[in-house]
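Q: Here's a chain of 108 amino acids. Please give me its 3D structure as tokens.
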Amino acid sequence: MEELDITAAEGSLTLQTVSDFQSIARQEGADSPLIIDLGSVSYVDSAGLGAVLGLFVSARRKGTGFAVAGASSDRVRILFQVTHLADFLPSYASVADAEASLRKAAGA
């Protein structure tokens, strides 16, 4: 399997920070599976949700793997549940769990 790219966000993923986050994630996940590490994120607004969802859709279109890891802060976890993103976004407790799942799915 090709290398996995990991984009880690910190603090808040909001309208003010989403542009930089998207640019980095799109570069890192251009042609390879992408893991979005939200372990250090304490708050996500609608723009942040839209960015994560957009990266997921882009990965699906390209046929590359995608996962969210570490979305464990109460605010982020509840937001993913209330918006039902948790129902279809591949989410894992840790980056290591996400890596293992993506590698297994690719048959590596």
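Q: Can you summarize the key feature?
A: The helical segments are 18-28, 46-62, 74-82, 95-106.
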